[in-house]
Amino acid sequence: MRLQKKIAIVTGGANGMGRSTAIRFLQEGAYVVIADYNDTNGADTMREIEEQGFGDSVRFIKTDVSKEADIKKMIECAADNFGGLDIIFNNAGVGGAVGPVWDLQVDEWDYTFDVLVKGVFLGVKHASRLMRQQGRGGAIINTASIAGISGGCGPLSYSAAKAAVINLTKAASVQLAPDRIRVNAICPGFILTGLTQGMNQSAEDVAANLAGKQPYPDHGRGEDIAGTALFLATEDSRFVNGEAIVVDGALTALGPDLWQRWDLPYERDMDKSVLNRGTTGEGHVRRKLND
Q1: What is the pLDDT of residues 150-206, one digit of tens each?
Q2: Catalytic residue among 31, 37, 111, 158, which?
Q3: Catalytic residue check, 216
Q4: CATH number where 41 lies
Q5: Domains of the chain: total
Q6: Distances in Å between the alpha carbon of 241 and those of 21, 52, 131, 210, 245?
């Protein structure tokens, strides 16, 4: 087992890529704290994990990653229940605000950055604080996106937020390297999860669409991200630090114009704006554009 007795936190761990990673970490011998805003998904995930026989090695804590008090409690949960922290996967995310730049609402922009950027910052801040106190190094993994490395891979606010995550990862890796704490990011392409499933599409429809939108014939799965996260969490990646690893079935190598590939209107041509709240359990928002 590659993570025997290691202690890990996975945010957004009750759904999609986070759920797959939490389960993979447990299978590799880790103790895992699953942090997620959606406690219904959390209960379902815990039930599945207990059925697999890992109940003693996992805890769930409801967490709003944009709230520093919640992040502190999450770190304390790992320390109090399992004795410390070796790995954190700052993975929680939402689709956020979608629409023409001239119509984006400030509060929806702030919501997007609060979850996607501040949530990662707070995870890095408090995980690294504990890891430095322990003095045994550690692995910090952040979920970025191919949207953070190109203008054609996602909505404007989401893309800007994920670009910030990539740069935060690089800057933090330099600061924390002397402590043997490695900081890396994963940049997923289209992975079939509750988030990419969107607001009104079935998993089957999304899977069919994904299969035709990227060079690799199969759509991405949460397990593909979990495998990359496992590599970044182990000594196999001992000298990998400050990297943003793309996992996208060669989509960015092709040169994406994802709006066109999905036969969707560009944001500038949309007749409605959207606030996608991911799998938080809170309702998505659609509204008409302001005149």
Answers
A1: 887 889 999 999 999 999 999 999 999 999 999 999 999 988 876 555 545 666 776
A2: 158
A3: no
A4: 3.40.50.720
A5: 1
A6: 20, 33, 16, 30, 11
